[in-house]
């Protein structure tokens, strides 16, 4: 994020192969993680952080 090294889990759908990034780091502890298409996960501006899913 914004030039800093950051790792996250990536899940791949068995059917179709879509990859999803699952990232809980950007939320407070206990809040559902952000789940976004892996190709949209990398951002360059902290203003664009995804919100929690569900």
Question: Can you describe what's shown?
Answer:
By secondary structure, this protein is mainly β. It has one domain (9-48). It contains 1 helix and 3 strands. A 3-stranded antiparallel beta sheet has the order 1-2-3. Strand 1 (9-12) and strand 2 (19-23) form a beta hairpin. The radius of gyration is 11 Å and the shape is globular. The model has no long low-confidence stretch (mean pLDDT 79).
Please write out the topology.
Layout: E1 9-12, E2 19-23, E3 34-37, H1 38-41
Antiparallel strand pairs: 1-2, 2-3
- Chain-averaged pLDDT: 79
Order of the strands making up the biggest sheet = 1-2-3
* SSE string, helices as H and strands as E: EEEH
**What share of residues are in beta strands?**
15-25%
Cα distance, first to last residue? 23 Å
Concise description?
With 54 residues, the chain is mainly β. It has one helix and three strands. The longest helix has 4 residues, at 38-41.
Structure characteristics:
single chain; 54 residues; 24% strand
């Amino acid at each position: 994020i914004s030039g800093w090294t950051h790792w996250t889990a990536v899940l791949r759908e068995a059917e179709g192969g879509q990859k999803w990034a699952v990232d809980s780091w950007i939320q407070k502890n206990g809040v559902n993680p952000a789940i976004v298409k892996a190709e949209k996960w990398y951002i360059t501006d902290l203003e664009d952080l995804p919100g929690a899913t569900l």
